[in-house]
Amino acid sequence: MKIAIGCDHAGFQLKQILLAYLRERGHQLRDFGTDSEASVDYVDFVVPLTRAVVRGEFERGIFCCGSGIGPAVAACKIPGGRAAVVSEEWSARDGVEHVDVNVLTLGQRVIGPELAKSIVDAYLSAEPQGGRHERRREKIAALEKERVG
Question: What is the pTM of this model?
């Protein structure tokens, strides 16, 4: 699978662990940075990552920071970006199956490396379901076209 991965300073260590883990499993990866624990703004990294996923250059995106919250909010501002902060496997799987989450955000300060690997496995192995879930995704996509007056 082609995966875009990135982080800010607070998720750098977790990203490094996940890069090695995903490479071992044969995934094609592009690292969107950052490349150290020097303080940066997550928006500067998660936005290009999300745009690349939305354009179809990557099948999924993963972003690590301290909590996962800010990058998820920023990624959802990109039309077609469907991000979720996840701290356990069930939500990672459900997020893809029901909402077609395309950017997973993880909090290095919230979960440990082994749980992160398990969450990533659940996220990458899940596929979007049709039926009522597809109808709901279409309604979400329609919201992106609305303008706040």
Answer: 0.95
